[in-house]
Write the structure tokens for this entry.
Amino acid sequence: MSGQNNLESIEDVAEFYAAIDRASLRHKISAERPYVYVTMEVYDAKNGIRGAGGLGVLAADTRRVAEQLEIPFITLTPFYQEERHQEMNNLVPHDIAVAKKPSDFGFHEIGEVNIKIANSPDSILNIYEKQLGSTRFLTMTEPNFGQLYSGDSSGDHRLYQMVSLGLGGYKALKMLGVKPSVMQLNETATVFATVARLDELCVNGMDIYEAIVYVRKHNLYTNHTLVQAADSEFSFEQFEKFVFPNIKSPALRHYIGGLFRDDRLRMSNLTIELAEAKNGVSKLHARVANYRDLSGERVNFKAITNGIDMNTWVMPEILNLYKSKNIVDKFNMPSENYVDIINSLSANEIKSLKKLGRARLNAELKNRKDQYGNAVQIPDDALVFNFKRRFVAYKRPWMPFEDIDEIKAILQENNAHYVMAGMMAGNVGAGDQTYDHLQDMLTKIKYDDFLRERVHYITDYDENLASAMSIGADISINVPEVGWEACGTSFMKDIANLTILVSTNDGGVADLEPAPIMEVRGRVYDEEIASMYEQMRLAADMCRDDEKWAKEVKRELSGYLPIISGSRMMQDYLRFLFKTEE
């Protein structure tokens, strides 16, 4: 095994399976029967696939963790031939599309599959693969495939993309001669991979209802959103055009046709019908997600909280500390006495790592541009607040700037800078809540001489910038509207990199009760704003006292380290999917 994974003593995956009490998995998961992870989005720029947000980052991390644990694993996902970037002109974000092709990133073409479209020529999808240890990417694309999430969520092109991923992707699996041991369906857009598997079973002679029972037992539907109303739905006419021509079994076409209500079929209803195992991505999410099946019964979700690939997101010197002190084991999972070891760390020991992290942040910012088109450098003696999340309304990136005098005073009193970054949704403008708030915030900052020098909106948010901000900041701001964040993993990267978290108690943060964070509370928005400023001041005070700072950092790390671990997440999925031993 490679030294990079720090698992030199593991001879094969069997040791990890045994460690999670699933020793028989070495007989159930193999190169011929891999774990297949189906997703419309992956955020892995190094491998040429750049998603839109948290789901894409999670998908990339899940594959990386599977590779490090030597689990036979296929990520089935489209390859989008246009990559979206953003730049700022006169404080207005503009999208830039950058062309790319799979061969630029080491993908190898292995063949073609066709997707039938009623009254139109077949669409020919080029299939590419890339092997990465025990894992591989299996992608499909064609010149007119479009960008990620292009078009209306219930429009023809979106349905075409879903069919290409699911039905085309399953053909690609057969091209490789593999059959999934399990399929993890990330969001409902992936459901057609299961439809394709059903079709194969029926064509091979299995009764439709026997086939449904079989695929249900081998599927996991992972839900990443809270509201079913936001889910895609399509008309019977759209299915006749894009879906039914690609299904050979009359019984399966008839079965799916019977699921329509008022000429519409919601993708979550189809997915719920075809997956026995269903999970949300944090304890709170699994508890409050409001999804119902076709009979109106509420769906029960198992809570499996997201985790991160620590090898990717934790500064190497910090991760080396965790390993050398036996805070985490060779699987990047917390050791038996990790809390005691964390509490024994000295303030000087961890403060020196944060100084190194600041240098890494400045090295990244040197090659970036702020909202005025300038590079940014943070003085070594300055305090740094960060906000680095996808810019959507419920994450409230503008919240610290609701009271300009207050945020200005906090930055002045603490010799602080505020560094923020996040990609906005494409094709938005005046009238969109997030766009209007962002314009208002940036305008206020521009016309205040002090804030103009201390608040830096870094454009073209990506993985490298996110990592550098986690590593180099002192305090991270995470203030989603409570009840809206499914999980979020940015907070995990902050805590793992010894950054204090000022946060509302939402998503994965709420997995612990009470949450060991600088918690933002309030029954109404104004109360939350006041609480946020109070917690920002308290956190800044801690940063001026090494012992108080170290105590808070260790409190947060001790609480969340088991949740942060991507290997823990993989353990939870394997235990959930393979419930009993043979």
Q: What stands out?
A: DSSP finds 22 helices and 19 strands in the chain. Residues 491 and 505 are 11 Å apart (CA to CA).
